[in-house]
């Protein structure tokens, strides 16, 4: 399966709402310009701390349950794919075995959504 996910696969997961944990690791300014529906915003420089939080702290800060280590679909994205690749590696190191990077990133998503 590898550590990346393509646009079509991500779109299908979002539409089926199938246990997807989608994490936007961009800056506040970038997120203000639009995001993929349902994404949790955790800026890349805070990800290590976020994934180290206990479930109660995580829920208080982000308003959603902390994903379990065996979450079947945990996907990271940024603006062009670089930061989310680092975030995916970090999540795998933390034990999130199914973490994947949406390499097309928000730039591809926003372009395809306009068509």
UniProtKB/TrEMBL annotation:
One Pfam assignment: Rhodanese
Domain Rhodanese: 16-114
PROSITE patterns in UniProt: RHODANESE_3
SMART domains found in the cross-reference section: RHOD
PANTHER family documented for this protein: THIOSULFATE SULFURTRANSFERASE RDL2, MITOCHONDRIAL-RELATED, THIOSULFATE SULFURTRANSFERASE_RHODANESE-LIKE DOMAIN-CONTAINING PROTEIN 1 ISOFORM X2
Name of the featured protein: Thiosulfate sulfurtransferase like domain containing 1
Biological source species: Poecilia formosa
Organism classification: Eukaryota, Metazoa, Chordata, Craniata, Vertebrata
């Amino acid at each position: 399966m590898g550590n990346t996910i393509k646009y079509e696969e991500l779109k299908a997961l979002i539409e089926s709402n199938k246990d997807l944990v989608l994490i936007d690791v961009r800056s506040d300014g970038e997120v203000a310009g639009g995001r993929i529906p349902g994404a949790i915003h955790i800026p890349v420089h805070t990800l290590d701390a976020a994934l180290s939080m206990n479930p109660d702290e995580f829920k208080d800060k982000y308003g959603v349950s902390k994903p379990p280590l065996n979450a079947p679909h945990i996907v990271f994205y940024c603006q062009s794919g670089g930061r989310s690749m680092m975030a995916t590696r970090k999540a795998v190191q933390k034990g999130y075995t199914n973490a994947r990077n949406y390499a097309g990133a928000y730039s591809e998503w926003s372009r395809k959504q306009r068509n």
